[in-house]
Design brief:
The protein is an alpha/beta fold and 384 residues long. It folds into 3 domains: 135 residues, P-loop containing nucleotide triphosphate hydrolases (Rossmann fold), CATH 3.40.50.300; 84 residues, no CATH class; 143 residues, Zinc Finger, Delta Prime, domain 3. Helix content is 55%, strand content 11%. A 5-stranded parallel sheet has the order 2-3-4-1-5, sandwiched between helices. The chain has a two-stranded parallel sheet with strand order 6-7. Strands 8-9 form a two-stranded antiparallel sheet. The longest helix has 24 residues.
Protein backbone atom coordinates (compact mmCIF):
# COMPACT_ATOMS: atom_id res chain seq x y z
CA UNK A 1 0.00 0.00 0.00
CA UNK A 2 1.64 3.23 -1.11
CA UNK A 3 1.46 6.07 1.41
CA UNK A 4 1.54 9.70 0.23
CA UNK A 5 3.85 10.76 3.10
CA UNK A 6 6.78 9.40 5.08
CA UNK A 7 4.57 8.57 8.06
CA UNK A 8 1.02 8.58 9.40
CA UNK A 9 0.13 10.79 12.35
CA UNK A 10 -3.23 10.48 14.14
CA UNK A 11 -3.96 12.76 17.09
CA UNK A 12 -6.72 14.39 19.09
CA UNK A 13 -7.84 15.42 22.59
CA UNK A 14 -9.31 12.03 23.52
CA UNK A 15 -7.06 8.99 23.86
CA UNK A 16 -9.92 6.53 23.40
CA UNK A 17 -11.08 7.97 20.09
CA UNK A 18 -7.52 8.32 18.79
CA UNK A 19 -6.74 4.76 19.90
CA UNK A 20 -9.79 3.38 18.08
CA UNK A 21 -8.91 5.13 14.84
CA UNK A 22 -5.25 4.12 15.20
CA UNK A 23 -6.16 0.49 15.80
CA UNK A 24 -8.36 0.43 12.71
CA UNK A 25 -5.63 2.07 10.62
CA UNK A 26 -3.01 -0.38 11.89
CA UNK A 27 -5.27 -3.33 11.03
CA UNK A 28 -5.78 -1.98 7.50
CA UNK A 29 -2.04 -1.45 7.00
CA UNK A 30 -1.25 -4.88 8.43
CA UNK A 31 -3.10 -6.45 5.52
CA UNK A 32 -0.19 -5.35 3.31
CA UNK A 33 2.40 -6.63 5.79
CA UNK A 34 1.52 -10.33 6.07
CA UNK A 35 4.64 -11.25 8.06
CA UNK A 36 3.63 -10.76 11.69
CA UNK A 37 7.32 -10.50 12.67
CA UNK A 38 7.54 -7.41 10.45
CA UNK A 39 4.85 -5.67 12.51
CA UNK A 40 5.86 -3.95 15.75
CA UNK A 41 3.99 -1.90 18.35
CA UNK A 42 5.79 0.45 20.74
CA UNK A 43 4.17 1.98 23.81
CA UNK A 44 4.57 5.78 23.73
CA UNK A 45 2.89 6.47 27.08
CA UNK A 46 5.43 8.16 29.36
CA UNK A 47 5.14 9.31 32.97
CA UNK A 48 8.55 10.96 33.01
CA UNK A 49 11.41 12.04 30.75
CA UNK A 50 13.20 8.70 31.16
CA UNK A 51 10.21 6.87 29.70
CA UNK A 52 10.01 9.40 26.84
CA UNK A 53 13.65 8.64 25.99
CA UNK A 54 13.00 4.90 26.13
CA UNK A 55 10.01 5.17 23.75
CA UNK A 56 11.87 7.37 21.24
CA UNK A 57 14.92 5.08 21.24
CA UNK A 58 12.78 1.98 20.75
CA UNK A 59 10.98 3.69 17.89
CA UNK A 60 14.30 4.66 16.27
CA UNK A 61 15.55 1.07 16.50
CA UNK A 62 12.32 -0.27 15.05
CA UNK A 63 12.37 2.16 12.12
CA UNK A 64 15.99 1.24 11.31
CA UNK A 65 15.45 -2.53 11.54
CA UNK A 66 15.23 -4.39 8.24
CA UNK A 67 12.55 -7.04 7.76
CA UNK A 68 13.97 -10.52 8.27
CA UNK A 69 12.34 -11.99 5.17
CA UNK A 70 12.37 -8.86 3.03
CA UNK A 71 9.42 -6.61 2.26
CA UNK A 72 8.15 -3.70 4.31
CA UNK A 73 7.83 -3.35 8.07
CA UNK A 74 4.97 -1.73 9.98
CA UNK A 75 5.81 0.17 13.18
CA UNK A 76 3.19 1.74 15.41
CA UNK A 77 4.19 4.22 18.13
CA UNK A 78 0.94 4.26 20.09
CA UNK A 79 -0.58 6.10 23.05
CA UNK A 80 1.93 8.96 22.86
CA UNK A 81 1.17 11.43 25.66
CA UNK A 82 4.37 13.49 25.90
CA UNK A 83 3.26 15.91 23.16
CA UNK A 84 0.70 17.46 25.52
CA UNK A 85 0.98 20.60 27.63
CA UNK A 86 2.03 18.72 30.78
CA UNK A 87 4.99 18.79 33.16
CA UNK A 88 6.65 15.97 31.23
CA UNK A 89 5.71 17.47 27.87
CA UNK A 90 7.16 20.88 28.76
CA UNK A 91 10.49 19.56 30.09
CA UNK A 92 13.57 20.67 28.14
CA UNK A 93 14.77 17.08 27.83
CA UNK A 94 11.42 16.03 26.39
CA UNK A 95 11.49 18.86 23.85
CA UNK A 96 14.93 17.71 22.67
CA UNK A 97 13.66 14.15 22.39
CA UNK A 98 10.70 15.37 20.33
CA UNK A 99 13.22 16.98 17.98
CA UNK A 100 14.89 13.56 17.73
CA UNK A 101 11.51 12.01 16.96
CA UNK A 102 10.96 14.56 14.19
CA UNK A 103 14.35 13.67 12.71
CA UNK A 104 13.49 9.95 12.81
CA UNK A 105 10.20 10.56 11.01
CA UNK A 106 11.88 12.80 8.46
CA UNK A 107 14.30 10.03 7.56
CA UNK A 108 11.67 7.28 7.52
CA UNK A 109 11.46 5.53 4.14
CA UNK A 110 7.84 4.50 3.47
CA UNK A 111 9.04 2.00 0.87
CA UNK A 112 10.81 0.10 3.65
CA UNK A 113 8.84 0.94 6.81
CA UNK A 114 5.32 2.20 7.37
CA UNK A 115 5.46 4.46 10.44
CA UNK A 116 2.24 5.10 12.34
CA UNK A 117 2.08 7.45 15.34
CA UNK A 118 -1.00 8.03 17.51
CA UNK A 119 -0.96 10.76 20.16
CA UNK A 120 -3.50 12.11 22.66
CA UNK A 121 -3.80 14.66 24.04
CA UNK A 122 -1.59 16.97 21.99
CA UNK A 123 -0.66 20.63 22.19
CA UNK A 124 -1.27 21.78 18.62
CA UNK A 125 0.43 25.12 19.27
CA UNK A 126 3.86 23.49 19.20
CA UNK A 127 6.10 23.36 16.16
CA UNK A 128 6.19 19.56 16.07
CA UNK A 129 2.41 19.17 15.65
CA UNK A 130 2.37 21.91 13.01
CA UNK A 131 5.20 20.15 11.19
CA UNK A 132 3.25 16.88 11.30
CA UNK A 133 0.19 18.55 9.78
CA UNK A 134 2.28 19.63 6.80
CA UNK A 135 4.45 16.54 6.35
CA UNK A 136 2.41 13.54 7.49
CA UNK A 137 -0.65 11.64 6.43
CA UNK A 138 -2.36 13.62 9.18
CA UNK A 139 -5.69 13.03 10.94
CA UNK A 140 -7.24 14.98 13.83
CA UNK A 141 -9.81 12.88 15.68
CA UNK A 142 -12.53 14.12 17.99
CA UNK A 143 -12.34 17.91 17.59
CA UNK A 144 -11.34 20.46 20.19
CA UNK A 145 -12.64 23.47 22.08
CA UNK A 146 -16.18 24.58 21.26
CA UNK A 147 -16.59 21.74 18.79
CA UNK A 148 -15.99 19.03 21.36
CA UNK A 149 -19.69 18.42 22.08
CA UNK A 150 -20.42 18.15 18.36
CA UNK A 151 -17.56 15.68 18.09
CA UNK A 152 -19.02 13.58 20.91
CA UNK A 153 -22.40 13.63 19.19
CA UNK A 154 -20.64 12.46 16.03
CA UNK A 155 -19.11 9.55 17.95
CA UNK A 156 -22.52 8.53 19.26
CA UNK A 157 -24.21 8.80 15.86
CA UNK A 158 -21.44 6.85 14.14
CA UNK A 159 -21.62 4.08 16.74
CA UNK A 160 -25.39 3.94 16.37
CA UNK A 161 -25.03 3.51 12.60
CA UNK A 162 -22.59 0.65 13.22
CA UNK A 163 -25.29 -0.98 15.34
CA UNK A 164 -27.98 -0.40 12.70
CA UNK A 165 -29.68 2.25 14.82
CA UNK A 166 -30.56 5.93 14.81
CA UNK A 167 -31.55 8.43 17.50
CA UNK A 168 -34.92 10.11 17.83
CA UNK A 169 -34.94 13.91 18.38
CA UNK A 170 -33.63 14.81 21.82
CA UNK A 171 -32.16 11.38 22.56
CA UNK A 172 -28.56 12.25 21.67
CA UNK A 173 -28.67 15.47 23.69
CA UNK A 174 -30.01 13.65 26.75
CA UNK A 175 -27.36 10.95 26.40
CA UNK A 176 -24.58 13.57 26.30
CA UNK A 177 -25.98 15.40 29.32
CA UNK A 178 -26.16 12.19 31.34
CA UNK A 179 -22.86 10.61 30.35
CA UNK A 180 -20.73 13.70 29.71
CA UNK A 181 -17.43 13.57 27.81
CA UNK A 182 -16.66 9.94 28.63
CA UNK A 183 -16.28 8.52 25.13
CA UNK A 184 -15.83 4.93 26.29
CA UNK A 185 -19.08 5.03 28.22
CA UNK A 186 -20.87 6.84 25.38
CA UNK A 187 -19.95 4.06 22.97
CA UNK A 188 -21.03 1.31 25.38
CA UNK A 189 -24.27 3.10 26.26
CA UNK A 190 -25.08 3.51 22.57
CA UNK A 191 -24.58 -0.22 22.01
CA UNK A 192 -26.74 -1.02 25.01
CA UNK A 193 -29.52 1.31 23.88
CA UNK A 194 -29.43 -0.10 20.34
CA UNK A 195 -29.77 -3.61 21.74
CA UNK A 196 -32.68 -2.60 23.95
CA UNK A 197 -34.48 -0.84 21.13
CA UNK A 198 -34.21 -3.77 18.73
CA UNK A 199 -37.87 -4.49 17.94
CA UNK A 200 -37.47 -8.15 16.95
CA UNK A 201 -35.56 -9.38 20.02
CA UNK A 202 -34.42 -7.09 22.81
CA UNK A 203 -32.09 -9.77 24.10
CA UNK A 204 -30.13 -9.84 20.84
CA UNK A 205 -26.68 -8.25 20.53
CA UNK A 206 -25.95 -4.88 19.00
CA UNK A 207 -24.05 -6.77 16.30
CA UNK A 208 -27.29 -8.59 15.54
CA UNK A 209 -29.04 -5.26 15.12
CA UNK A 210 -26.37 -4.13 12.68
CA UNK A 211 -26.71 -7.39 10.74
CA UNK A 212 -30.46 -6.96 10.55
CA UNK A 213 -30.06 -3.43 9.25
CA UNK A 214 -27.50 -4.59 6.69
CA UNK A 215 -30.04 -7.08 5.37
CA UNK A 216 -32.47 -4.27 4.76
CA UNK A 217 -34.42 -4.65 7.98
CA UNK A 218 -35.99 -1.84 9.96
CA UNK A 219 -33.52 0.62 11.48
CA UNK A 220 -33.64 0.59 15.26
CA UNK A 221 -34.70 3.96 16.69
CA UNK A 222 -33.35 4.92 20.11
CA UNK A 223 -35.97 7.08 21.76
CA UNK A 224 -35.42 9.75 24.40
CA UNK A 225 -37.48 7.60 26.77
CA UNK A 226 -34.99 4.73 26.32
CA UNK A 227 -32.12 6.99 27.38
CA UNK A 228 -34.11 8.33 30.34
CA UNK A 229 -34.92 4.80 31.50
CA UNK A 230 -31.62 3.01 30.92
CA UNK A 231 -28.74 5.50 31.06
CA UNK A 232 -27.46 6.48 34.51
CA UNK A 233 -26.50 10.07 35.13
CA UNK A 234 -22.75 9.79 35.40
CA UNK A 235 -21.91 13.37 34.45
CA UNK A 236 -23.98 15.51 36.79
CA UNK A 237 -25.34 13.47 39.65
CA UNK A 238 -28.46 15.57 39.07
CA UNK A 239 -30.78 13.10 37.38
CA UNK A 240 -31.91 11.22 40.46
CA UNK A 241 -35.38 9.88 39.77
CA UNK A 242 -36.70 11.72 42.82
CA UNK A 243 -35.42 15.04 41.46
CA UNK A 244 -36.99 14.32 38.08
CA UNK A 245 -40.29 13.45 39.68
CA UNK A 246 -40.23 16.45 42.01
CA UNK A 247 -39.56 18.85 39.12
CA UNK A 248 -42.53 17.43 37.24
CA UNK A 249 -44.81 18.25 40.18
CA UNK A 250 -46.02 14.64 40.36
CA UNK A 251 -46.52 13.87 44.07
CA UNK A 252 -47.30 10.17 43.65
CA UNK A 253 -44.22 9.57 41.42
CA UNK A 254 -41.97 11.53 43.78
CA UNK A 255 -43.05 9.57 46.85
CA UNK A 256 -42.60 6.27 44.99
CA UNK A 257 -39.14 7.37 43.80
CA UNK A 258 -38.14 8.25 47.35
CA UNK A 259 -39.32 4.86 48.55
CA UNK A 260 -37.21 3.07 45.89
CA UNK A 261 -34.21 5.27 46.69
CA UNK A 262 -34.23 4.46 50.41
CA UNK A 263 -35.20 0.81 49.88
CA UNK A 264 -31.98 0.34 47.90
CA UNK A 265 -29.93 1.85 50.72
CA UNK A 266 -29.75 5.41 49.43
CA UNK A 267 -28.91 8.46 51.52
CA UNK A 268 -30.94 11.65 51.86
CA UNK A 269 -28.11 14.11 51.29
CA UNK A 270 -27.53 13.47 47.55
CA UNK A 271 -31.28 13.76 46.94
CA UNK A 272 -31.43 17.11 48.71
CA UNK A 273 -28.33 18.25 46.80
CA UNK A 274 -29.94 17.26 43.49
CA UNK A 275 -33.14 19.10 44.40
CA UNK A 276 -31.23 22.21 45.42
CA UNK A 277 -29.10 22.24 42.26
CA UNK A 278 -32.11 21.94 40.02
CA UNK A 279 -34.09 24.49 42.00
CA UNK A 280 -31.23 27.02 41.68
CA UNK A 281 -31.39 26.70 37.91
CA UNK A 282 -35.19 27.04 37.92
CA UNK A 283 -34.93 30.16 40.09
CA UNK A 284 -32.69 31.81 37.50
CA UNK A 285 -34.96 30.72 34.65
CA UNK A 286 -38.02 32.08 36.47
CA UNK A 287 -36.26 35.40 37.07
CA UNK A 288 -35.40 35.75 33.37
CA UNK A 289 -38.96 34.91 32.35
CA UNK A 290 -40.48 37.37 34.81
CA UNK A 291 -38.09 40.09 33.60
CA UNK A 292 -38.97 39.43 29.96
CA UNK A 293 -35.39 38.50 29.08
CA UNK A 294 -36.39 35.00 27.97
CA UNK A 295 -39.54 33.11 27.12
CA UNK A 296 -40.74 29.55 26.95
CA UNK A 297 -41.33 28.40 23.39
CA UNK A 298 -41.96 25.10 21.62
CA UNK A 299 -38.21 24.44 21.51
CA UNK A 300 -37.63 25.18 25.19
CA UNK A 301 -36.15 28.40 26.56
CA UNK A 302 -35.76 31.13 23.92
CA UNK A 303 -33.48 34.10 24.47
CA UNK A 304 -30.84 32.41 26.64
CA UNK A 305 -27.85 33.57 24.51
CA UNK A 306 -29.10 37.15 24.60
CA UNK A 307 -29.61 36.97 28.37
CA UNK A 308 -26.09 35.57 28.76
CA UNK A 309 -24.73 38.63 26.96
CA UNK A 310 -26.60 40.91 29.36
CA UNK A 311 -25.99 39.12 32.65
CA UNK A 312 -23.19 36.60 32.14
CA UNK A 313 -20.44 38.95 33.35
CA UNK A 314 -22.20 39.36 36.71
CA UNK A 315 -21.51 35.73 37.70
CA UNK A 316 -18.06 36.49 39.09
CA UNK A 317 -16.20 33.39 40.24
CA UNK A 318 -18.76 30.94 38.78
CA UNK A 319 -17.41 30.41 35.29
CA UNK A 320 -17.10 26.61 35.56
CA UNK A 321 -20.18 24.47 35.08
CA UNK A 322 -22.31 25.11 38.13
CA UNK A 323 -25.95 25.31 39.12
CA UNK A 324 -25.14 28.75 40.56
CA UNK A 325 -24.60 30.05 37.00
CA UNK A 326 -27.40 29.31 34.57
CA UNK A 327 -25.24 30.29 31.59
CA UNK A 328 -22.72 27.51 32.25
CA UNK A 329 -25.40 24.86 31.76
CA UNK A 330 -26.14 22.91 28.59
CA UNK A 331 -28.79 25.03 26.76
CA UNK A 332 -30.70 21.92 25.76
CA UNK A 333 -30.80 20.75 29.37
CA UNK A 334 -31.99 24.18 30.54
CA UNK A 335 -34.75 24.13 27.94
CA UNK A 336 -35.84 20.67 29.04
CA UNK A 337 -35.98 21.74 32.69
CA UNK A 338 -37.96 24.86 31.88
CA UNK A 339 -40.43 23.11 29.61
CA UNK A 340 -40.87 19.86 31.57
CA UNK A 341 -43.93 21.05 33.51
CA UNK A 342 -45.68 24.25 34.57
CA UNK A 343 -42.86 26.34 36.01
CA UNK A 344 -43.56 27.32 39.65
CA UNK A 345 -43.67 30.95 40.69
CA UNK A 346 -40.57 32.66 42.03
CA UNK A 347 -42.14 32.68 45.50
CA UNK A 348 -42.73 28.91 45.35
CA UNK A 349 -39.19 28.22 44.17
CA UNK A 350 -37.74 30.32 47.00
CA UNK A 351 -39.98 28.49 49.48
CA UNK A 352 -38.77 25.17 48.04
CA UNK A 353 -35.16 26.18 48.59
CA UNK A 354 -35.96 27.03 52.20
CA UNK A 355 -37.69 23.65 52.58
CA UNK A 356 -34.58 21.85 51.32
CA UNK A 357 -32.43 23.66 53.88
CA UNK A 358 -34.90 22.86 56.65
CA UNK A 359 -34.99 19.20 55.60
CA UNK A 360 -31.19 19.00 55.72
CA UNK A 361 -31.20 20.42 59.26
CA UNK A 362 -33.98 18.02 60.22
CA UNK A 363 -32.17 14.86 59.11
CA UNK A 364 -29.23 15.91 61.30
CA UNK A 365 -31.61 15.92 64.26
CA UNK A 366 -33.42 12.74 63.11
CA UNK A 367 -30.70 10.64 61.40
CA UNK A 368 -32.78 7.47 61.47
CA UNK A 369 -35.84 9.03 59.84
CA UNK A 370 -34.45 10.43 56.58
CA UNK A 371 -37.18 9.01 54.36
CA UNK A 372 -39.92 10.37 56.61
CA UNK A 373 -38.31 13.83 56.58
CA UNK A 374 -38.14 13.92 52.77
CA UNK A 375 -41.65 12.54 52.38
CA UNK A 376 -43.05 15.27 54.64
CA UNK A 377 -41.05 17.93 52.81
CA UNK A 378 -42.31 16.68 49.43
CA UNK A 379 -45.95 16.78 50.50
CA UNK A 380 -45.57 20.36 51.76
CA UNK A 381 -43.83 21.53 48.58
CA UNK A 382 -46.07 19.83 46.03
CA UNK A 383 -49.40 20.43 47.74
CA UNK A 384 -48.75 23.86 49.24
Amino acid sequence: MSEPNNFIFICGPDDYLVGRVGKARFAALAADVPDEFARETINGFAANVGEVEKAVNQFRDAIQTVAMFGGRRLVWLKDVNFLADTVTGRAESTLRLVEDLQEILTRANPDETIALVTAAPIDRRRSFSKWCEKNADFALVGGEGDGASEALAGVVLAEARECGASFAPGAVELLLVRVGANTRLLVEETRKLATYALPAARSATAAGAAEAAAKGGETVVIEEAHVAELTPNVAEGDFFEAAEAFSSGDLKWTLAALQRHFFSGGDARPVISALQNRNRILLQIRALLDAGDARLGPRGLDGLPRAATSYGARFTGATEKSSFNLFTQNPWYVGKLAGRAKLPTLRRLIDNQQEFIAAFEEIIRRPGEEEDVLRDMTVRCLTG
